[in-house]
Amino acid sequence: MATQPFAAGGYRYIPGPFQYSGGVAAEPGFAVERVRFAKLLPLAEGFAAVEAHLARIGRPIAAFCACELRSPTQFSEAGFVAFNRRYVEQLAAWGHYRDGVNPVARSNVCPEIAPPAEPSFYAFSYIVPGSGGFVAAGCGEAQEGAGSYAERIIRLGDTSAAGMREKARYVAGEMARRLTALGFDWSDVTATQVYTVHDLHPILADEIVRPGAAPAGLTWHYARPPVEGLDFEMDVRGVIREFVL
Questions:
Q1: How confident is the model at residue 146, as a pLDDT?
Q2: What is the DSSP pairing of strand 23-26 with strand 105-111?
Q3: Number of H helices, E strands in the chain
């Protein structure tokens, strides 16, 4: 993985599909902050709140570098593409997205209990003057490459302890690769988040804690990854400050 600069925002990113990058890291002289909304905001309201917050603290809209979304239920592949086309319209208006290139990292998961009525903002991250920080985008157990999700998902439909172990091992490995590409390692992580509705306990020690993937503990969200067939997702970050707005 080789990163590319997004100079207007003061960060670099891992190129990914059109809907998100694989992760972002602050360039020298800059740092990452994160805001979590006290309650979920529908997509349009969330984008407006991001814009207002950045204006309030005197940062350009280009400083927006990552977001965490919540959706009502898992998407079909076609539904996911349709949603993503709508999502990137605002990024294009802001100047982030152009010609299929998107520097903004993202996680988008589906709460199993009390989901939102429509895709909504949960949190976002942005760049400020300072030193250091990163966000590795959410990753499920679908291997990178061509083909449908069903063709790429690790042990599709297998939620046994052995199946979940292999899924988690792949995802944690992908997180480690993204950290390396961004210039960090597990010791730099300030928060690790896991998204699954399946039993995490049989794999927690060996696949997450022992390899060092949760140095600051683990937040388990009882939620599904965004696309039908996916069962396990992670994201990690290392930020200097976090706020609730």
A1: 79
A2: unpaired
A3: 5, 13
